[in-house]
Batch of 2 targets.
Target 1
Amino acid sequence: MAVTQYVAVRSIHVLGSGFVVGGSAVLWLALRAQGPVSVRLLSWFEAGFWAVLGVMVFTGLGNLVGFGIPTTGVRASAFSIKLACILLLAAVSAVRSLSIAELRRRDRETATARGLRWLYAATTLLSATIVPLAGVLARG
Amino acid sequence: MADRRDDPWTRHLRALIVGTATTVLLVVATILASHLDGSLADTLPAVGTAAATFLFGYLWLLTIVAAGAALPSGVDALAPATWLGRTAASGAGVALVYLTIVFVLGFVSPLPAPVAPGFRSVFGAVAVGTVAGAVLGIVAGAMFALCRRAATTAVRDTDM
């Protein structure tokens, strides 16, 4: 029972990180290489992003208890940096998602804005930075 | 532009964005602060999975509902003071409902009660929490006003 619960929590956390890193990277590349991207698609990603991020914060706390909360050393430092990166990711993502809501409010069908491309790039880079920190936190 | 009405999907999306971002920022900032002062290693393992699911899920749900109430259609037309008043009221409302329910359930659950089960201690904790919620609501409201301004700037060249 306990094994099943831990496997479920870790699986959800890893799948969520795949969605966040992969989804933002694909949309960044699409905005950069393809040009206009459907605002409808972007708004579905934003809804999924926030649902997944909320679940990941919760499962992350479960993982933290499962792996042991670091108090000193490299793991404790990695944990502090990871939390700071998550705060930054949430702030950048709030701006990015509100940009998509703004495009919807203006009844735009597609998005090409350069600022939006940078926001998806920042999301990809920040979330990709968090992944190795999570590795250090789990394994030392 | 300011008085344009949002469709229901956009309103729900905004409530999800603002509610979840507030929850994530609040929870992660609290975890970081308690990690830095060394208390996290004692407090977090003491909260069981079921209690943690309830505490987090209930806060998340309440914050999304409060964000939906604080963000009317045509929110951009609101004066800054009106906007911050709405977010302060939402923050106070979330804290009041959340703490009341958590304390009541804390008394009837088999876990140790979070505060002594007396009228003055419970009322005092809820009152202090409600004031703190209002302050957090103002901080969140100011932050999302800045985020909205940055978002408008980010998609500015869409109109060109």
Target 2
Amino acid sequence: MADLATTFAGIRSSNPFWLASAPPTDKAYNVVRAFEAGWGGVVWKTLGEDPPIVNTCSRYGAVRYKGSPFAGFNNIELITDRPLDVNLAEIRQVKRDRPDRALVVSLMVPCVEQSWKQILTQVEDTGCDGVELNFGCPHGMSERNMGSAVGQVPEYVEMVTNWCKQHSRLPVIVKLTPNITNILAPAEAAKRGGADAVSLINTLQSITGVDLDLMAPEPVVDGKGTHGGYCGPAVKPVALHMVADIARGLPGLPISGIGGIGTWRDAAEFIALGAGTVQVCSAAMHYGFRIVSDMIDGLSNWMDVKGYRGIEDFRGRATANYVHWSDLNLNWKTIARIDPGLCIRCGLCYIACEDTSHQAIAALREDGRRRYEVIDAECVGCNLCLHVCPVDGCITMEPQPMSGPKITWNEHPNNPLRQVAAE
Amino acid sequence: MKDMGESASYLDRTRLASVFAEAHPPLDHHPALVEASRCYFCYDAPCVEACPTAINIPQFIRQIASGNLRGSAHTILAENILGGSCARVCPTEVLCQQACVRNAEEGRPIEIGALQRHATDWLMHHEPTPFTRAPTTGRRVAVVGAGPAGLACAHRLALHGHDAVIFDAKPKPGGLNEYGIAAYKLVDDFAQREVDFILSVGGVTIEHEKSLGSDFDLASLRRTFDAVFLGLGLAGVRALDALGETFAGVRDAVDFIAELRQAGPDAPPTIGRRVVVIGGGNTAIDAATQSRLLGAEEVTIVYRRGPEHMSATGKEQRWAQVNGVVIRHWATPTRLLGSPAVTGVEFERTRADDAGRLTVTGERFVIEADTVLKAIGQTFVPDPLRMPDGVALVVEEGRIRVDADRLTSIAGVYAGGDCVAGEDLTVRAVQDGKLAAEAIHRYLAG
């Protein structure tokens, strides 16, 4: 039986599954329910200075895909709208009642040292395990020069992180915004500022849709809309990339992975790319806290099958295989194979290849029956047919003998800037 | 006061209403979206090939999924103007849905018929016909028969700017949709509403209760019109070679269904307590199931071969069985019992010999019955087509001979539907009418 316990930036939790700072962690009632459901930790919804902010009605937009709700999710909700002392009292009580669970508190105050110093003192007094600096919220708060307005300026990230390390003994996790060209810049700044860890991604600036009757962006508030923060399954690829960039670029900096995680498999992918814990919000908002039971069970079972005894046994294992394009082997060759026994004759592989790729699939009729067959000489092994095929395992990419030894773009004769071995 | 032996009189109004209620209610909006999203939007889709009218099925389903119901209905109706009734009566389990690639994948095809109904219902409820006629050509075409073939032909001719005059023997248009299909398949007067929808495009008039052969003849049509389309039904009903067909309580299943359809829930036809239906097609299924719903206690379909040989699909057979109909296979009627009223039917067991030929075994049994419905098939009666000038319309194997354009042996005379060879399906009749109209259009232009 695999051991899922983690120690992340000095914070211990019984499993790597934390709830992200968001509506599900806004108050004790929810957090207690989350702990009862089995979550290893929570990041309490972001606290700010009094008077509390005011939220709008409505707050959420969602992207449906082919009848499925929640392919992507977006919110225009701000940080907690409850008074600071109410939150602090509840945090203190919850931590006292459940000392075995990780309880990290998210913070966002103006870029004034005294503001950070003051709230850190109050938060530290609750007995919580750490703080997470919200430099990610891309809507509303950013218009007030907080949230992603800080996260988009590495100098600010470093400065505030530095203040927090000076004024608190708690582990400091810096939550990064993905609304930036190169995630390494703020991550390096956080590290320079003394951050114990980074967490990412926060949400992406987004409009989930347009109400074509009201002619307004969704979600609509009294006929108007604003951009919100995008999350849910659709953002997972963005998050994986940014986590991987930091794991590769800043080895040793602990990462809490966030973005579209809903299953143990999602979590395993983040951990394989270097994350030490993962944080979940959208999936819990979709299905409730109970999703964690299969995340725990599924990860544990998979680890047993793979022979991993603990999270550290596989954490970061995929990082070394995350390389730059110019390090890929240009002589690697695969060809698509269509299993006629599994093929349901939908023709999607054919029309995708014929219209948009390499005309490498033949549409045949044998006694009136459709047969789709790869034309080996034309197939470039691009995987498109594999991805459009609705049947698992019907199309596979078969490795072919390589036409020569491994050669990368760095070494390729067509590359005018190729590296040539010294004579 | 009805005869005590006729059990419909025992049904209260609620139960009676259910006799005429729809067997398969329509999909609501959300289930339709979910079902539409299951469609893979196949390229060179097998379902299209399996549809006799070649509706672009992946396209209309994608249009449902995208919320373009207007476009979806147009896609359907452009190929099949009777797409509404075909969505209800087509044996999709042996047509489009049998070809669906989802069968190979998970044994559950897309509910194409239900989706087709969703789109066409929406259009018929919300919008006028999406079609407009070409400028009028002044050419006039006679269409004989206001069934699916004739209506489809007339509509397509009207779109091309020709005027069509439909002659129909019955008081109401619609053909078998009005007179020959179980009530629970086409509720709420759908057949008439669909006819109104088709005719709303303009250019088509119907002459009711005008029969070929008695009120007019083919020769006069050829003289008066620029072209003729024959969309005749099957007027003949096969007889049983069993003694006693004249006993009271013995009747043709098609007549029973026609009476039921015209009577409606306020004055349903009476039915016996023990009903025997002889035959293996959809008429037998419809008549037997309707008998059960009307209150008959025991309804037995007897068919001379096995379930796989019945022209009613497996789904239709199961539908009858679910409604309490017993289906007995491998028996043929040898004698009707009773006098003056029928009291039963004697059957002889049959089997197929090694060559597949039907033989009798000599073993006999009797099923008691006060009602016997004959559903052993209908025949085309060509007599009304006789022409005085000696020109003969060629009839082969009991049906009018036509070529791929549905042209008969006489120039300018086309035919389609049940009076020509092919499967007796509404959708096939529509395709005949459509193809004939296109051929007539070319003929008139030539």
